[in-house]
Automatic annotation (TrEMBL):
Pfam families per the UniProt record, alphabetical: Retrotran_gag_2 (PF14223)
Protein name, as recorded: Retrovirus-related Pol polyprotein from transposon TNT 1-94
Organism: Nelumbo nucifera
Chain intervals with Basic and acidic residues compositional bias: 179-188
Top-level taxonomic group: Eukaryota
Annotated segments matching region Disordered: 179-216
Amino acid sequence: MATDNFVQPAVPRFDGHYDHWSMLMENFLRSKEYWQLEELRLKDLKAKNYLFQAIDRSILETILHKDTSKHIWDSMKKKYQGSTRAKRQQLQALCMEFETLRMKSGESVIDYFSRTMAIVNKMRTHGDKTEDVTIVEKILRSITPKFNFVVCSMEESHDIDELSIDELQSSLLVHEHKIKQQEKEDQTLKASTENHPAPRTNKELCNSSIESSSIS
């Protein structure tokens, strides 16, 4: 009898970014029903096991004396969430990074969107309320010049306020594919021209013949 393959979700590893990790870890524990909503308290033994898997040894050694998973959770929060002032400073730095963000020469659409959304998601975990339309406008302003005609076309044919991030990415991916295809065809044509030079005209042949006779 056939059975469905089910992949168990991986335990989110703590990477130093507490707010993002705590959100992933809380969702993970809720999915395992080890987080009691009515008491806002972690179930203990199995929850502690998952927390131990998520935390590096160097950090774990500083919290092993904590009796319960709740105490471990609170300790991580105090150590790494930081003060309101520190979070505000981090948000300011992220906002500056977002404002100065530009698509690199040769960077793919997917890579640039991933880089942009990584910054946006960090901003949002720090309490930022940046709307999707702001992100769309930012991307349109900061992509490389080879997409300029695409940007003009989209601004004329779309209401930017109604354009979603996914729709923008999809449209740019289509145009990126066309650009790459055109570049490939141009390279093929150039290589073909270099390998097979154009035949000489009758005038060129006559001049060559006259030059040869003169030499003789």
